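stage 2 :: seqdesign
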C-alpha cells in the first residue's frame, strides 16, 4: 500500500501585499474627499484667510530707536492678543459668511462703482456707505438714489438676528454751519438718518440698532489727500458678531 505524502502548508509571506493595497486604496479615497471638500469650501476659506490677515495686520507691534525696548516689553502680551484676535476673526468670518456672500451679490454694482465697501473684522461685517453717493457735502439728508442701496442692506438685516451699529465718520476738515457746529454732530446725524430709513421704510427692528458718531478720529485712509478724505467720509453699518456684540450694553 502506498501512503500519500502529507503536504505541509507553508506560510504565505506575500499576504502583506493585500493589506498594503487596501491601505493605499483607503488613503487615495481619503485624499479625494479632502480635495473635494477643499474645492467646495474654497470661497469660505478665502474669506476666512483674508479676515485673519486683516487681524494680523491690525495687531502688529513694531519698534524703532528708543521705542524698540518698549515694544519688546509688550511682545508677549501682543502675541497672546494676536492669537485671540486671529481666533475671533476666524469665528466671525464663519458666522457672518452667508451674510457677506448675500451682500456681495446684492451690492455688486455699488461695490464695482466704489460707493460701498465690505470688510470682515473681528467684531463683525462692516458695510461702508461713502458720503459722496449718500449725502451732499455738509448735509445729513440722504440722496434719493441711495435709498435703493439701503434697501438691499435692510433686506439682508431682516434675514439675520445680529445686533447692528450705525457709525458716522467724517474727514478732518472742520465744519461750522447753521445746522452743525462740528463734525461730531454731522457724523452722528448721518448715522441717525440711515437708522431712520432702515426702521421707517424697511422695518428693521429699532431694538437691534445702535448709533455712534466718530467725527474724524477713526479714519480708514490718510486725510492728507482728497482721495483719502473721501474714503473717510462714510457711514458704516456694522453687523456685529457674537464676539462684537459681547462688548455692547446688555439689553433686557
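stage 2 :: out
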Amino acid at each position: 500500500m502506498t501512503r500519500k505524502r502529507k503536504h505541509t502548508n507553508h506560510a504565505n509571506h506575500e499576504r502583506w501585499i493585500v493589506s498594503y493595497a487596501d491601505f493605499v486604496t483607503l488613503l487615495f479615497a481619503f485624499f479625494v474627499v479632502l480635495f473635494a471638500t477643499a474645492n467646495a469650501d474654497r470661497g469660505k476659506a478665502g474669506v476666512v484667510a483674508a479676515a485673519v490677515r486683516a487681524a494680523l495686520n491690525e495687531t502688529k507691534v513694531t519698534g524703532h530707536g528708543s521705542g524698540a525696548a518698549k515694544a519688546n516689553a509688550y511682545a508677549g502680551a501682543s502675541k497672546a492678543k494676536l492669537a485671540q484676535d486671529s481666533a475671533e476673526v476666524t469665528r466671525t468670518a464663519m458666522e457672518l459668511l452667508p451674510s457677506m456672500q448675500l451682500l456681495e451679490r446684492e451690492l455688486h454694482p455699488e461695490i464695482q462703482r466704489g460707493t460701498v465697501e465690505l470688510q470682515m473684522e473681528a467684531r463683525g461685517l462692516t458695510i461702508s456707505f461713502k458720503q459722496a453717493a449718500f449725502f451732499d457735502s455738509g448735509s445729513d439728508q440722504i440722496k434719493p438714489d441711495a435709498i435703493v442701496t439701503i434697501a438691499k442692506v435692510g433686506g439682508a438685516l431682516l434675514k439675520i438676528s445680529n445686533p447692528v451699529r450705525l457709525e458716522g465718520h467724517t474727514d478732518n476738515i472742520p465744519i461750522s454751519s447753521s445746522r452743525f457746529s462740528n463734525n461730531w454732530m454731522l457724523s452722528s446725524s448721518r448715522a441717525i438718518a440711515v437708522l431712520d430709513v432702515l426702521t421707517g421704510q424697511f422695518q428693521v427692528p429699532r431694538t437691534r440698532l445702535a448709533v455712534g458718531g466718530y467725527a474724524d478720529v477713526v479714519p480708514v485712509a490718510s486725510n492728507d489727500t482728497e482721495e483719502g478724505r473721501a474714503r473717510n467720509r462714510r457711514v458704516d453699518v456694522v453687523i456685529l458678531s457674537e464676539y462684537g456684540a459681547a462688548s455692547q450694553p446688555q439689553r433686557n
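stage 3 :: structure notes
- The longest strand covers residues 124-130.
- Residues 35-43, 58-66 have pLDDT under 50 and may be disordered.
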